[in-house]
Amino acid sequence: MNTRLNVITLDGPAGVGKSTLARLLAENLRMAYLDTGAMFRCLALRLGAGAEKLAESAVRLRCADVCFSLDGKGNATKLCCDGMPVGEEIRGEKVGLLAARIAAVPVVREILRKAQREIGETAPLVAEGRDMGIVVFPDARFKFFLDAAPEVRARRRLKDLELHGETVNLSELAEQIRRRDDMDRNRAIAPLRPADDALLVDTSRMTVGRTLNLMLRHIKEGQRAAAKISRLA
Ligand code: DC
């Protein structure tokens, strides 16, 4: 099958709701769901603090045997690292910051880009992250870029972390998100920005349900238009 039809990309900054929406979209469309931020978080934990200063050869050596895979689809999709489902230990904002630091290292992005594309060949995918639409799956048929005001994202993240049992302070969290935004948008390699052909959605005042409906409608309209063109051809 053609990759162009089989991957939907979802990019955007921290706390915008990408994971929730990617999971719902995958469930609706019976596709698998790939959380690429989780892959950066796994490598950040594996490499430890200060990894962004390691020599390229040391990073390659320490990541040589890392193996990512996806199991299942829709809501039940599980990302596995070395055969084990990725757990809650990667979810905190501290690991998020470590991940943002190693995300600026070219060899880390090269290793993960390869792993992400390999996963993209194994199943129809909703892939969410920062550079899905521009770098990893530039040929994806549908691309979305979600954004929301920083204070809205901080409140969403707070709710999410509390659900995962973490106690966090809203203003500290807002500051961590601001630092992460800064790193993600301004790094030299694969900075966060929308693909030219992505649908931009500001979710600041939108519920999850409304955003999901808008995305599904966009996909259905695109599919109808493509079917019409192929009938005419
Ligand atoms: O989506 P997240 O918060 O779990 O991502 C953690 C960090 O990983 C994020 O701050 C930047 C990095 N990341 C990236 O650079 N590219 C991706 N495709 C996904 C995440």
Describe this structure in words.
The protein has one domain (5-232): P-loop containing nucleotide triphosphate hydrolases (Rossmann fold, 3-Layer(aba) Sandwich), CATH 3.40.50. Helix content is 52%, strand content 15%. The protein has helices spanning 3-6, 18-29, 36-47, 56-63, 93-102, 106-120, 132-136, 150-163, 170-186, 208-232, and strands spanning 7-11, 32-35, 68-71, 78-81, 84-85, 125-129, 142-147, 199-202. The strands form two sheets. Strands 2-6-1-7-8 form a five-stranded parallel sheet, with helices on both faces. It has a three-stranded antiparallel sheet with strand order 3-4-5, covered by helices on one side. α5 (93-102) packs parallel to α9. The model has no long low-confidence stretch (mean pLDDT 93). Bound molecules: 2'-deoxycytidine-5'-monophosphate.
